[in-house]
Structures are given as structure tokens and as C-alpha cells.
Write a structure and sequence with these properties.
Elements: E1 4-9, H1 14-25, E2 29-35, H2 47-50, E3 60-61, H3 65-68, E4 73-76, H4 80-93, E5 96-99, H5 106-115, E6 120-123, H6 129-145, E7 150-157, H7 167-180, H8 184-187, E8 188-190, E9 204-210, E10 216-224, E11 227-235, H9 239-252, E12 258-260, H10 262-265
Parallel strand pairs: 1-2, 1-4, 2-3, 4-5, 5-6, 6-12, 7-9, 8-9
Antiparallel strand pairs: 7-10, 10-11
Helix pairs in contact: 1-9, 4-5, 6-7
């Protein structure tokens, strides 16, 4: 079987370069194209050389359309507007689209869901196996412990991260909300400051820390009377996200259109 031909968006960024490196090291996939935003300094550079894996002859471009005509999938850790655009192109070309972009607004999610009617799209706030297992444990704990345990989600990332809470923190918050059968939006509590009054019953709290070169730390605290249950994940190497994204791409290749998650890729199901 021929290798799956992948487009990498945000190719000059940290995750883009990590993805290109992972593609070079992973059997069954090959780099088809590398995309960056218009005006990026890396336009025209050899994508693989920039990623530190030797020249491939694939130049970074700001025009993804020609690439979608010859590729089998897109792996996308870019920016919300770019991910929405790539989802539309994936739908047009009927190819797989793996989205690891965070900071997506409700309107962006609606457009991505519409594109998923025509292409298999895997979207996750975090592509690692460990984090997705953590989300399952959080959902089960929230269901078992009930609303008498206060839920607080604490995350820390490197100083350059631009969105908060992190996509992973929101994913974990959604898992807690699912476990309690409530809507996250109406139970989310963020940015406490000043005289806030007592904690709202049933709230799911978020706290975001930024500094240094932290890849990603997440803890979900279930605080009850006289005890705390803490579920945590610490990412030590960004390559784990790239490996998870490629696993998702291979899983989605040839699958029917739909909006999928890493839980689907990893076979966790809905039980």
C-alpha cells in the first residue's frame, strides 16, 4: 500500500517542524506539502531541512490548494482561521484533516463541523494517548464523585502560548461536564480576582499558568470534604503530540466523513 501523503500546516512553527520530523521517521506516511501563512519568512525554504531531517525538495508555500489535489490528508497545528480554511479545503478534496489547533471559537467549530459532512476530521485539544486516557478517567471520576466534589483544572504551559485556558484544559473540563451531565459553558468559572464571594456550587474552575519552556502540565482536582483526588498528566516531549497526530491521520485515511476525536482513534468508545 502506498504511503499516506500528508500536508503539514504551520510548517515553520515548533509543532510543524516536529510533525515533519515525525513524518520522516514514521512508516506509512510521507510529506506531500508544507504550508505557512502568507508573508512568513520561511516561504520558499526546504521544509525538511528546516525541520532538521535533511533536504526533501519540498518548499514551504502559502498556497494549500494545489497540495490538496494530490494529498491524502492534512495535519494541522496552526491558527483558528487557518484551520477553518483547511477544513473547507479538506471537505472539497474529500481528504482527512487532523486538527490540533487550539483557541477555536464557537463559530470556528460550527464551520469545522459543517466541513466534516464531506471529509473525515479528527479534532482534539490534545493528541497524546496519556491525555486522552486522563480525559476518560476525569469523566468517570466526575460521574462517580458527584457535584459535592468541587472540580478545579490547573494547567501550565510555556511563556509563548497565546490562548488560555489551554485546549487540553477545556477538553478535560468538557470531560468533567459530561460525567456530571451538565453543560460546560454554563458551569465554567475562570479568572477569579478580588472579592469573588464563595465558590458557586457545581462550578468547574480553570486556572492557567504561563512560564519558561513547559510543554504542558494538567491537573484535575476533585476537592471534597476532608479529601482531594488529583488526576494529572505531564508532557515532557512535544514529539508525543506529533506521533498522536500521525496515528490519527492514518486512522482517518479512507474513513467515511464525520467529526471524530482521539477517543475514536484510540478505540475508547462511549462506555
Amino acid at each position: 500500500m502506498a504511503d499516506m501523503r500528508l500536508i503539514v500546516t504551520g510548517a515553520a512553527g515548533r509543532m510543524g517542524r516536529m510533525l515533519i520530523k515525525a513524518i520522516a521517521e514514521t512508516p506509512g506516511v510521507t510529506l506531500a506539502a508544507a504550508i505557512e501563512r502568507t508573508g512568513a519568512a520561511a516561504i520558499g525554504a526546504d521544509a525538511s531541512l528546516l525541520a532538521g531531517v535533511g533536504a526533501s525538495g519540498i518548499k514551504i508555500s502559502d498556497d494549500p490548494l494545489p497540495a490538496t489535489l494530490v494529498a491524502d490528508g492534512i495535519v494541522d497545528f496552526s491558527a483558528p482561521a487557518a484551520s477553518v480554511e483547511m477544513a473547507a479545503l479538506a471537505a472539497q478534496a474529500r481528504i482527512a484533516h487532523v486538527i490540533g489547533t487550539t483557541g477555536l471559537a464557537e463559530a470556528d467549530l460550527v464551520k469545522i463541523a459543517a466541513a466534516a459532512h464531506h471529509a473525515p476530521i479528527v479534532r482534539s485539544g490534545n493528541m497524546s494517548l496519556g491525555v486522552n486516557l486522563l480525559a476518560r478517567l476525569v469523566r468517570d471520576a466526575a460521574r462517580a464523585l458527584g457535584a459535592e466534589y468541587d472540580v478545579e483544572i490547573v494547567e501550565m504551559h510555556h511563556r509563548m502560548k497565546v490562548d488560555a485556558p489551554s485546549g487540553t484544559a477545556l477538553m478535560l473540563g468538557q470531560a468533567a461536564a459530561d460525567g456530571r451531565a451538565v453543560e460546560l459553558k454554563s458551569h465554567s468559572e475562570r479568572g477569579r480576582d478580588g472579592i469573588t464571594g464563595p465558590r458557586k456550587p457545581g462550578a468547574i474552575g480553570f486556572a492557567s499558568l504561563r512560564g519558561g519552556t513547559v510543554v504542558g502540565d494538567h491537573s484535575v482536582i476533585f476537592a471534597g470534604d476532608g479529601e482531594r483526588v488529583v488526576l494529572s498528566h505531564h508532557a515532557e516531549d512535544r514529539s508525543l503530540f506529533a506521533r498522536g497526530a500521525l496515528k490519527a491521520a492514518l486512522w482517518a485515511h479512507g474513513r467515511k466523513p464525520g467529526l471524530y476525536s482521539m477517543a475514536d482513534v484510540l478505540g475508547f468508545g462511549e462506555a
